[in-house]
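Progress against Task 2.4 (sequence-to-structure conversion) is shown through the following example record, which the project officer requested during the mid-term review.
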Amino acid sequence: MAIDHDELAGSLRTWRDRVTPAEAGLPDGGRRRAPGLRRQEVAQLAGLSVDYLARLEQGRATNPSPSVLAPLARALRLSDDERAHLFRVAGHAEPAQGSIKRHITPSVQRVLDRLTDTPVMVIDASWQCTTSNPLAYALAGDTSALPLRERNVAWTVFTQGPTRWLRTEAEERLLRLELVADLREARSRYPNDGLLAELVDDLLTVSAEFADLWEQRQDRQPNSGSMTFVHPEIGPITLDCDFFTVRDSDLRVIVLTAAPGSDAASQLDLLAAIGLQQFS
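Structure tokens generated for the chain above:
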């Protein structure tokens, strides 16, 4: 498919102008020539350089990749139809049938925006961490700049990657069974998803345990309803954990909460004050 430079540029400028700083969770920043976001704000939200975004908006950039378009769609809070339009005018096919829907819709983003006092994470059917709110990044570590593969929970667990998530031996066993069962189910539901296929193939290669569990075809078993994280400044924080599935997609919203007046609630208050700072 050929890229439509004029339509891509015009669409990006229109979408940027309609998103207010408040909707994007940003300070107003004083007087603005236009009501929407500044170019540097969109670039920051999407993880792009301001220069590259300027070239996209001026019709001078060639062949923007899906890895550029997806975070742009999220930063601009595009609907599913608008996201499909973005991909088409940028010269790419719409996400194929049989692929995981990873797009964070505006309604899901509003949920994240409003749940500011408790950690919230969003994962897809492959246990890929799609996004988190600031308190979740403060709790579990800011993974937003890591490569996609290193933001995948299954990959981190089976390759023993760095994590603040503390699990008992029993919890670890149940988690691994759950991950393999979920990936097997996802593989059957999304046969055309390249990222999912690569993840499974690579896990089968690098992890003998994953390969063994994959062949066993065991069902998932109930796991603990809580999660414990070891924060470098605050120490262990144990929170209640609930999963909510987003309608018409396999996105799952993980909400971590503490009972009012509990030690964990006090720790969350302290975490909110510390943010991403580390003092040691």
